[in-house]
Design brief:
alpha+beta; Heat Shock Protein 90; 3 domains; 5-stranded mixed sheet; 12 helices; 57% helix; binds adenosine-5'-triphosphate; binds magnesium ion
Length: 481
């Protein structure tokens, strides 16, 4: 079976693209939410940081604003440097009296700055704008400073470069994007493997089903998963096996039929040819030969008999096959059947001086069977025993019941059957020694009729045999209670 080519499997692409799309959307959404949250948190931290710095500077600012300390500029410069913040001290009215980063000389009035205005009314004031003094965007936080009596003295202002804050956030966003990108790559690769795994059984089933459509039933689905897809694959495999079985059974039956026709034709042709030969010889003048004409006529009679037997056997085979399923089983005693069959064969047994030993208890249990069929079975077994046993031999017919079954045994002290032939003697036309059997008038149908009849009655037939010692045929039928 060709391996799954993921690029050419529609099913694969459908699954995979759905998965990939879903995953991409989820990844983008999640990282977007994370980014917004973290951005807000950083901004919050920054503000909180500026606020506490301003708060921290209030006592120092109060002293400076009250006393106008001359060291203020130097102190602020130092503080600003260590905290990386620009600090501005504005006196009530707007005059800058100290700045950590710039000289205060010539600095414009700061009272109208938005953060200062906001602080005047709300203690704290916040503003993000372009700084005229430092020439870059800054975030400002202003805090009013009052004396212990509550008299406002001015404002302390801290500020931070917006660029610095933004670079922090951009760095974060970049890290987030990298992680998301790597995650997406890994997920797409894993998804590829996963989608392929899901697609493999489907792909195999398509291959198998298409092979079946083309009349090839030997291909099987190899990947059986333990889910509905697996069950489908399993069913497909079983279907394949069943079809293979049915087809080979059909082929076997066809061979049997062909062999049968060939065998029948042959069996008919042989005696016909010899009849024709003798008739021609007689017509050609032998009729006037008193020494031979009787012999020829006897041969013609023998061959006609063979033909009659053959036709009779064929007819009874056909009849059995037709009625096999409709055979009505009733309680029959073997005793009756044995008596009538032996009586019927009295002449042959007598001619060959064969002794028959009966081991049939008078009260022998009855079996579920068909009288006519049982008669035919025993008749065939008994004629065989007589046919294949030398003059003066012994034939034993015994009946015994054991549990559910009743056994009929027909044993002889005849020529026996070689082991290699034993399993075939129940086949139609099968004879161990063709020439000899034909000589004796057999066609090889007797045992196949026996087997058919016995199995139609739900029983079994077996044979044991030793060459030169004898054979024993056993027929098992269901006992009737
Ligand atoms: N009791 C037996 N002893 C030895 N061989 C036997 C015995 N019964 C059957 N066979 C062998 O099995 C073969 C098949 O038997 P079967 O009864 O089917 O055919 P047949 O006796 O040759 O012909 P017919 O169709 O007239 O019965 C026989 O040809 C013979 O070789
Ligand atoms: Mg026979």
């Amino acid at each position: 079976m060709p391996r799954l080519n993921a690029f050419r499997s529609r099913f694969f692409w459908k699954n995979y693209s759905a998965f990939a799309l879903l995953f991409l959307i989820t990844a983008v959404l999640i990282s977007w939410i994370v980014f917004i949250k973290v951005d807000a948190t950083i901004n919050g931290f920054t503000l909180e940081n500026l606020r506490s710095k301003a708060e921290f500077l209030v006592p120092m600012a109060r002293t400076t604003l009250q006393n106008g300390s001359s060291e203020a500029q130097g102190l602020l410069a130092e503080l600003g440097k260590s905290t990386q913040t620009r600090i501005t001290l504005i006196k009530e009215g707007g005059q800058v009296i100290a700045d950590s980063d710039f000289p205060i000389a010539g600095m414009e009035n700061h009272w109208s700055r938005p953060e200062v205005q906001e602080a005047l009314s709300q203690t704290f004031g916040l503003s993000e704008r372009f700084s005229v003094t430092s020439q870059r965007p800054l975030i400002y936080l202003a805090r009013t400073v009052s004396d212990p009596k509550g008299q406002r003295l001015g404002v302390v202002r801290v500020s931070l470069s917006v660029e610095k804050l933004h670079s922090n956030i951009i760095g974060l966003a970049a890290a987030l994007a990298t992680i998301t990108f790597l995650g997406v790559l890994i997920a797409l690769a894993l998804g590829w493997a996963l989608a392929q795994r899901v697609s493999i059984p489907i792909w195999e089933m398509v291959q198998v089903a298409e092979a079946m459509r083309d009349g090839k039933y030997t291909q099987r689905v190899r990947t059986i998963t333990d889910d509905e897809v697996g069950r489908l694959g399993d069913t497909l495999n079983r279907l394949g096996s069943e079809l293979t079985g049915k087809i080979s059974e059909l082929q076997r039956l066809e061979t049997v039929r062909r062999d049968f026709v060939a065998n029948v034709s042959h069996e008919i042709k042989t005696p016909l040819t010899s009849i024709k030969g003798y008739v021609e010889t007689l017509l050609g003048g032998a009729i006037n030969d008193p020494d031979n004409r009787l012999r020829f006529l006897e041969k013609i009679e023998r061959n006609s008999e063979r033909l009659t037997n053959l036709v009779q056997d064929l007819l009874s085979l056909a009849k059995i096959e037709a009625t096999e399923d409709t055979l009505k089983l009733t309680a029959i005693a073997w005793t009756d059947v044995v008596t009538s069959v032996i009586a019927r064969n009295e002449d042959v047994l007598h001619q060959k001086n064969l002794r028959v030993k009966l081991d049939v208890p008078p009260m022998a249990a009855r079996v579920l069977g068909d009288r006519e069929a049982m008669t035919q079975v025993l008749d065939n077994l008994l004629t065989n025993a007589a046919k294949y046993t030398a003059d003066g031999g012994l034939i034993t017919v015994a009946v015994a019941s054991r549990g559910m079954w009743t056994k009929l045994e027909v044993a002889d002290t005849g020529i026996g059957i070689p082991a290699e032939h034993l399993h075939r003697i129940f086949e139609r036309f099968y004879r161990v020694d063709k020439a000899r059997s034909r000589e004796l008038g057999g066609t090889g149908l007797g045992l196949s009729i026996v087997k058919h009849l016995v199995s139609a009655m739900g029983g079994e037939v077996h044979v044991e045999s030793t060459v030169g010692i004898g054979s024993r045929f056993t027929v098992k039928l269901r006992a009737d209670y």
